[in-house]
Every structure is written in structure tokens, then in C-alpha cells.
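Appendix B. Chain record.
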Amino acid sequence: MHHRMAGWARALAPAGVDGSQTEGIAMIYYALVFLIVGLVAGALGLFGIAHIAGQISWVLFLIGIVLLVIHLATGRRVPIR
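C-alpha cells predicted for this chain:
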């Protein structure tokens, strides 16, 4: 994972979230970037690029959600004191 993204994802992660969950957050970040690229391309009339960017954003969003769900289901829990 890129170092800038790791810091960004860590900053947005809730308290008690370990480093492996930031991968899912990074995937969702990239999905949003491709969504914005698709929206801008569509507004400029570049419909082929908009369609491809939309498909990429959808796939990355799904992968990010799956990674987050898997981590939450199998991740270590912080004991309550």
C-alpha cells in the first residue's frame, strides 16, 4: 500500500482499528477517486472513459466492502477493561 494512503486511511479509521483494516478503506478511497473521474469525464462528454471509470469504481468498492466485512468477521477484538 502507498505510504500516503496508509496515513490517510489510518487517520480516518476509528479507534482500535489495526493496520489490516486500512486496506479496505484504501480500496473504498480509490473507488471514490474513479467515481469522481467517471463523473467528470461524463460531464465533459467522454462517455467511454466515464463508463470504464464507473466500472472500475464499482469493482473496487465491492472489493473494499468485502475486505472490511472479512476483517470485521475474523479480526482480533480489543478486550474491554
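Further analysis of this model is presented in Appendix C.
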